[in-house]
């Protein structure tokens, strides 16, 4: 039952190694373009890789108030969940664990695990800054959950034809049949809503109320140093990759070219595009919001957009 | 609430313009014309009037007697750049313009000596016999007085 | 020859009642005899129900047992019959498991309370009555068991009459509870007036003959029964007393409340809607149940977010999880009922575990207010780990059991939303409630277990072994039902769902073959026991990945080992290097706990929260108005609809 | 096996933590000016970190007043091990004009071994950049020493 | 002939519910509960009534009644059994409620439902 291909999938292609390299590269490009937008040269493309390796070499201080096992274990749990999502996302019809009709609900809950790992890690560090950071992180998770769910329901209804579907495979087949989801006019508000949800899910600048280094000293990560901090930073990079990959899988699907490598390359290109439009552009032009502004923005404006396409999809348009 | 997207146009256009960044460590750069940078001390011109020591707010200038023999004393004047405010009072007040603030701004140092400017100067001692001469002068003015 | 298993249902209930009486007689003075008797009774009933479960669920046959051997005469049930099919066995399993574990837990937990000797009597009475309620096949017998359950609950709520609100909670529970029993009794009387029988099987056949649409007495009976069982399952309009009762009762009893008593209410609702009155097929009745479920989901969790008492927070979560179960059962589809039953089982496991953790914290520190707790993880590591397992499984994070059942429920609701638009919003509310559950348990984790430790907790020790054992058993069960969903659905859930769906099989085995044809004239439709598919999510792959990546990171981290030191000394006064970063200040004690979390969310919902807290006014009359108002709404709605 | 890679990357991504020990804010705005597009310290990997736990280079500005002395020392001690301490401007190095004031608690080098001094009363951004660059090189060297000494400093 | 029984039980039920909802004093609430119970008991008993039936006791005389007009006509005994249990339950409810009310009176010092609301919100 356990064929060796699984090991290859888990460890190499859409699994751990691919996520590590692709995520770091994605963040490097993101920072470079962000710098270019501000008329400055910006760090080298491999800067996130250097950051990660440096943090791996630094000393790990476990504060007196911290609870050691949870403090050290939290980052790894986050990384594992992110890699699992990457395994379940269809890239133009190719999914690593294809026979699992793993569907959107599994992905929604897997997406809450990295946020939960940051929160539990911050709680375990026992610092009051972390306490405030946790509360803000949880509020931002609640705030982007409503529009995300509505968008997924709209897509499920659209891709389901007469019935409704949760399974990513059905969505991929639907997009292979009649073009990317974003081309359907009734799905454009949902695409816009999802584009706005992506930065908050990743914790990107205008919505990074939880890790506001100027106000509450990096929020939950205040007591982290050395290897655990390195893994948390890696989680941030891989989450950028995974969330934009989710957007690409949901909206920018289509008929694959058949060769897995080519599909993966196009898919990665789409992820770059999504990262640019959703994270870099918004990050370069907006200032950080307050926590209840983030909540109100997501539960009124973005949820409204998602509702529009939900209603349209409902009436079969 | 108005969540507008300011500067999107500028952000997008700037992506393709040349960055306004001076790659300093890799491309050399001169300071502005009369930038008050590292201090240079011309020891020979100094007459040890001590005015610069008095006028320095940061107390960065010190004077140390190094060696002394019968006809001249050798002093060493040190300028401690780490406690200097680069107000250039010392160079303005120095009548002999022995102190000069150059345009060199590469003032970083890992050891204390890197940021210590030193300069030596000698001060010729006057002969003691010179007292007699003034006596002669004294007579000359007495007979003028009778 | 009736083999011995046939007798077990009646015997199991009687053993518990017998234990109750024996404990009162002999257990007065010495403690060990009392504990021995109580645990003997609990173990005996647990073993008996296990045998019944194996016999009924695994082998798939139905036990029918006529008390006094009064078998039906000329197709007319005259005696009290006990019928145990897969549904009964499933709930009986939940009941006895919770009883058994709570018994072990309360040996040490109640040893400090001075009124300990009467505790075991009430505990055995409560478990006996709920087991009787779940196993019986006669509707009046079910009513009598409900009454005994209400008495035991009231007495156990007011057990610690010195604590803050116990007496008040007991009285309110009694008022609303007996209001519910009166509604149930009136409903039963109306059913009896129509069909002149009390046996459930015969009743459902007669009702199918008499027909319910348009028959106003039957509709009134249906509304009364729904209100009666709704009050027992603490759905929203009747949930006020539940919040007070859970908070005031000792933790081992709150575990019984949230594990058994509201499950008995849900069982009653399933029996009434699916089997006796068979009205679940009608769309309008489904919308009623789903509406009640959705409202209790959302109200329960939003109220829980503001609480700063540990047990009251857990109480409101029980109400919201019961909302999940009711929504799933109200859908009427096989997948919905499967999701509902699976979630009911999971809820019993993780909610019981959470109440035991609350009890352990109370036992160790004597506090339940979240605002003055903190840093218990270092003093009570095992309780902290168990609490994390339970918190993650209630908020539905993948490897744990909450996720699987919530996943089934979402699939069922979403599949149902293909027909009508309303169900889309039910799915959205369900998903948002799950996130809010995670939020409130993050709040508890931060305020109670992590965060800055308090000086007065220095001598706090871990709770004794006999309390930890049941907690570990439940934690392992939580993880097991989460990791092996396929096994659990095949073995436990699908037989129970088939029992719910195929009503005629239930009637025929009870009243003799061919009975339904004779009475209702409709052929016995046999629902095919198809395998409930929940998508083959194999968490095994997830765990393999977790292992591999864990190994990878320890290697990478170890490689950097030589350049880093674990410097976490446990000297009393931490040196500067390991003190918490306070912006340079000396590490003073400042906790971010309880009510100052989630300011952003609460600020935006200020109006809603004030109104909601206003409704929970604490006055008995308001609660009675809500209950009777809900009854009136049900009657009017059902009359308009059926 | 990743060892030299880590040592090199220690120099390539030094994160700054800025402590204002009573400064007149002249040096503070110069330090932040280094991160602006014109001088862009980020192209060398510099980034401001929010907490001492994340920092590699601690930049101290301002004369060490008596009140802030122990806070600065406590924060410096909370920085994980391969760290550099950089004094920016004349004040932390020697107390500048505040040298004889009654609140002055002496130069930073009295308590902590300072790695790089950046002179200039309000140091020029280029000087700051050069100083930080030197500090990054020192970091790499320190990381090597730490590795050889078995890490249990 | 049975109509007034049903009407009377409906009135009792309504009165009981009214007292539960409106009366502030705890003892009046307990009385309301009692009224509810009596209403239901009356209702159950009147459900079991058959026109012209006799008490459900076998005294031998019904044999010739059976021979005479072919059917022995008893009143339905089952509801009477139900009412017995229901009355017992009603009594226990009132007893327990009053004992709790006494204890509340001691601890809270008042019996007004408006003041007994420490558990709220």
Question: In summary, what is this structure?
Answer:
The complex is a heteropentamer of chains A (317), B (146), C (642), D (153) and E (121). With 146 residues, chain B is an alpha+beta fold.
What is the topological layout?
The complex is a heteropentamer of chains A (317), B (146), C (642), D (153) and E (121).
Chain A: H1 4-11, H2 16-37, H3 47-57, H4 68-88, H5 104-125, H6 128-159, H7 168-178, H8 188-202, H9 213-216, H10 227-251, H11 260-285, H12 291-314
Chain B: H1 8-14, E1 39-41, H2 51-55, E2 61-68, E3 72-80, H3 89-93, E4 99-101, E5 108-109, E6 116-124, H4 132-145
Antiparallel strand pairs in B: 1-4, 2-3, 3-6
Chain C: H1 8-26, H2 31-58, E1 63-66, E2 81-84, H3 86-109, H4 116-135, H5 139-157, H6 166-195, H7 200-210, H8 216-232, H9 240-248, H10 251-276, H11 283-306, H12 310-330, H13 334-365, H14 376-379, H15 381-394, H16 401-416, H17 422-449, H18 465-483, H19 485-501, H20 503-511, H21 515-520, H22 539-559, H23 599-604, H24 606-615, H25 620-641
Antiparallel strand pairs in C: 1-2
Structural summary, described in words:
The complex is a heteropentamer of chains A (317), B (146), C (642), D (153) and E (121). Chain A is built from 12 helices and no strands. With 317 residues, chain A is an all-alpha fold. Chain A has one domain. The longest helix of chain A is centred in the middle third of the chain and has 32 residues. Chain C is mostly helical and 642 residues long. Chain C has a domain of 202 residues. Chain C is 70% helix and 1% strand. Chain D has 153 residues and is an alpha/beta fold. Chain D has one domain: 3-Layer(aba) Sandwich (Rossmann fold), CATH 3.40.50. In chain D, helix 1 packs antiparallel against helix 5. At the C-E interface, helix 5, helix 6, helix 9 and helix 25 of C face helix 1, helix 2 and helix 4 of E.
Any idea what the shape of chain C is? globular
β-strand percent of chain B reads: 15-25%
Going by helix content, strand content and strand pairing, the class of chain C is: mainly alpha
First-last Cα distance of chain B: 103 Å
Taking the sheet with the most strands of chain B, its summary is:
3 strands, antiparallel
State mean pLDDT of chain C (0 to 100 scale): 86
Second CATH tier, the architecture of chain B = 2-Layer Sandwich
State the strand order across the main sheet of chain B: 2-3-6
Query: Which H/E pattern describes the elements of chain C?
Result: HHEEHHHHHHHHHHHHHHHHHHHHHHH
**Strand sequence of the main sheet of chain C, in spatial order?**
1-2
| Largest interface, C-beta closer than 8 angstroms, per-chain residues | A-C, 90 and 86 residues
